[in-house]
Specification:
- The protein is α/β, with parallel strands linked by helices.
- It has 2 domains: 199 residues, NAD(P)-binding Rossmann-like Domain (Rossmann fold); 184 residues, Rossmann fold.
- 44% of the residues lie in helices and 13% in strands.
- The chain has 18 helices and 14 strands.
- The strands form 2 sheets. The protein has an 8-stranded mixed sheet with strand order 3-2-1-4-5-6-7-8, with helices on both faces.
- Helix 18 links the parallel strand 13 and strand 14.
- Helix 11 packs antiparallel against helix 12.
- It is elongated and about 75 Å long.
- The model has no long low-confidence stretch (mean pLDDT 95).
- Bound molecules: uridine-5'-diphosphate-xylopyranose and adenosine-5'-diphosphate.
Amino acid sequence: MAPITVKKICCIGAGYVGGPTCAVIAVKCPNIQVTIVDLNQARIDAWNSDNLPIYEPGLDEVVKSARGKNLFFSTDVDKGILEADLIFVSVNTPTKKSGIGAGFAADLKFLQLATRRIAEVATSSKIVVEKSTVPCRTADAMRTILEANSKPGCHFDILSNPEFLAEGTAIADLFKPDRVLIGSLQTEQGKDACEALKNVYANWVPKEQILTVGLWSSELSKLAANAMLAQRISSVNALSAICEATGANIDEVAYAVGKDTRVGSKFLKASVGFGGSCFQKDILNLVYLSESLHLPEVAKYWRAVVEMNEHQKERFARKVVDTLFNTITGKKIAILGWAFKKDTGDTRESPSITIANHFLTEKARITVYDPQVTQDQIWLDLTNYGDIPADPIKEHLTICQSAEEACANAEAIVVCTEWDEFKQLDWKKIYAKCPRPAFVFDGRLMLNRKELTDIGFQVITIGTGDRV
Ligand code: UDX
Ligand code: ADP
């Protein structure tokens, strides 16, 4: 049998991964019809409007150029499944909150429901591609579900095709990926399915950058890539603590270390801690996997990357309290940035949430400003996070429309996200409205420390010892 030519793609899950990925496929493959389906009506309505449900630089242009031509958004999941030759499954796989593996293992209920739906609805053979980040061997479980529930004459090939895009740069990453990874069973049929998907990407990605491997290697590679990226950040953050204690400067250390071509310069920026939907989840998955494989030392090793991240957030929050003369009760503290990184409105696992919760526990008065995150999202993040009830949160925290408004009369300004606009603020004007001493805590090492110090601020940054 020869590989099929893919003409119709359905993507189940119109989220941060499925939406941008399949919108780019539509733009790059005008001969393929791409339908992105989701159970969430509001999300689909937003994808069909001028106000897309996610903020991602360049995404509006991509969606506008293909929507209504060969790119469609719909809640009709069954129709999408019926029509497609290839189906991406790109649903959410959060960390389990209860039951076996709670706090570590991925909750695969959404993935399994979507898979079951494919089996129940499909009347012809399909290539089913797992796009969501999943624990190793999930493809096997999907295959069992599909085979146990399929109609006679329907054959399903399973591929793993993890997505490596980073939020904030998703469109650039998708246009020019470092690599595309496709995992398949090493049977004739598996290889044909792999070739069919490879031909889709070959519309814009050089063939030598499309790597084809076994299913489990593909699944593990995604977890491994995220674990190793996160490990770099935890390593540099661990060093930042040493810098603060010794007077060394973490940016200088990271620069010197990164100049070694064996290390490389990327992902060595010390910070208040990493966030995002992937790093913590994937490492915890790896920890769970290691434990299930009776490899406790391996589990302990990866767990330390997450523990260091928790420590970094906690350390930063504590530094604010210590510097404000050991109490922040009743003091006004401005948090600049709520998203987990710049150029996204996504707040999943954002360090700001942990830090704000710490300040709330200390009964500070908090103002928050983020250029992209909605007010509802901020309230949701805080009420879902800890055990502080909604009323005291609303009493102590105000969401502002600008950085200036958030910073007015603040005893401490705490930068948690590296939004470019924070560099351009009128810091003199802000200083004029702050009580003295006026503190800025730079959790992203992004502000011009000298300029702020010259204005009169006391500037405290992660990874530098001396308070200027
Ligand atoms: C990550 C991976 O980069 C991507 O390949 C994968 O597909 C999904 O997970 P993402 O979480 O979107 O992407 O963003 P990323 O740029 O990796 O940043 C993750 C977190 O690490 C952010 O909170 C960011 O601020 C932080 N970070 C990143 C640092 O603190 N220092 C760095 O040097 C780099
Ligand atoms: P990610 O960051 O992995 O893309 P998101 O949470 O942003 O995760 O998106 C996942 C999407 O998948 C959500 O919009 C959710 O409504 C959708 N989804 C989950 N289960 C199903 C399902 N069985 N059928 C269709 N859509 C689903």
